Amino acid sequence: MTAAEVLIQTALLGEAVDGGPALVFVADEDMRYIAVNEFACECLRYTRDELLDLRVSTIVREPEVSAHYDELLSRGFHDGTTTLTRKDGSTAEFAYRATRTVVAGMQLYVSVGFLSES
Fold it and tell me: Which phi and psi (to 5°) does residue 21 adopt?
């Protein structure tokens, strides 16, 4: 693939994921969100800017959130189901897979999953 083809593929993938049918969150090792897709914003009723000002522990409502994140940091992946809190305080169950990745030389953690209403 040429450099131009790689850029085109990357742009297309980015657009597809942004509005795609799954929630996508990218966080750093300190549990700060650094990227979220539009679908996650819509489902949780936050603007992108609002979500990017939050931490994983603000949205994820479970006592084990820090332990699960530590497992993700040490093992490089974590699967599970958790409860997410929307901006209006309502909740939804989130089934996800989170993995470690490297983007532009930065180690990041990507979580992709789906909601079921609660």
Answer: -85, 15
Residue with tokens 């996508």: 24
What pTM value is reported for the model? 0.89
- Calpha distance 77→50 (Å, rounded): 26
pLDDT tens, residue by residue, 17-39: 888 899 999 999 999 999 999 99
CA angle 92, 27, 98 (to 5 degrees): 60
> What are 16's two structure tokens?
């597809």
- Residue 31 region by backbone torsions, left for phi larger than 0, else alpha for psi between -120 and 50, else beta: left
For residue 39, give the nearest of 115, 100, 95, 108 by alpha carbon: 115
* Domain range annotation of the chain: 3-117
Instruction: Kindly provide the residue ranges of all beta strands, DSSP E only, lying in the chain, ordered along the sequence.
Output: 23-27, 33-36, 77-85, 91-103, 106-117
Q: Considering only the top CATH level, what class is 3-117?
A: alpha beta
Task: Encode pLDDT of 60-82 as tens digits.
Answer: 988 888 899 999 999 999 999 99
Query: What residues does 23 pair with on adjacent strands?
Result: 113
